[in-house]
Design a protein that fits this description.
Enzyme class: hydrolase
Structural class: mainly alpha
Catalytic activity: ATP + H2O = ADP + phosphate + H(+)
Distance between the termini: 40 Å
Keywords: ATP-binding, Helicase, Hydrolase, Nucleotide-binding, RNA-binding
Strand order of the largest sheet: 1-3-2
Radius of gyration: 17 Å
Largest sheet: 3 strands, parallel
EC number: 3.6.4.13
Function: RNA helicase.
Order of helices and strands: HHHHEHEHE
Number of domains: 2
Strand content: 5-15%
Helix content: 40-55%
Shape: globular
Number of helices: 6
Number of strands: 3
């Protein structure tokens, strides 16, 4: 088992060094009051406890994209994060969505089950399938609490009819798609 990383946000000097060390640039539009301090660990205010336990059991610490995106997203602020493949972007965006939805923070956005509330676009079928698997792993973690977030993945190269039927019959909360099929 891995040692647990420290929790909470980094101090001002540590945050400054973290941004520099990881070549991170953060832009906050004028007039926006957003705390951009990165996290040192997985315990994010408002995160579902089971998601935190999942992360602590699998990873040593958040990746830079996660450490920077999570606190901003949990403030319900828009985030545009750019990082390399395999850097943890899916979890950077999916975990705040799942945690806020589970707590009812996003009830303003409630929609019928056949309409997605989380959409991730991927340039290739393979990447879309990988993203969907990460989303499914995260949602399985929450099923023990009786919470269900149906995940569907749609992409070209297979019949549209089958994918459409799956969306209609099984429902969808989190949709992962390639642009052409979307």
């Amino acid at each position: 088992k891995r040692a647990k990383a420290p929790t909470g946000k980094l101090g001002f000097e540590d945050a400054k060094a973290y941004f520099e060390e990881n070549c991170i640039k953060v832009h906050v539009p004028p007039g926006k009051d957003v705390d951009i301090t990165p996290l040192a660990g997985f315990k994010v205010k408002g995160f579902a406890k089971r998601l935190v336990q999942y992360c602590e059991g699998k990873f040593e610490k958040p990746t830079p994209i996660q450490a920077c995106c999570w606190p901003i997203a949990m403030q319900q602020s828009d985030v545009c994060g750019i990082a390399k493949t395999g850097s943890g972007k899916t979890m950077a965006f999916a975990m705040p969505y799942l945690s806020m939805s589970r707590r009812g923070v996003l009830t303003v956005f409630e929609q019928p089950t056949h309409m997605p509330r989380f959409v991730a676009l991927a340039p290739t079928r393979e990447l879309a399938m990988q993203i969907a698997e990460v989303c499914k792993d995260l949602t399985k973690t929450l099923q023990a609490d009786g919470v269900d977030f149906p995940v569907q993945c749609i992409y070209g190269g297979v019949p549209k009819r089958e994918q459409r039927q799956a969306l209609e019959s099984e429902g969808v909360d989190m949709l992962v798609a390639t642009p052409g099929r979307l």
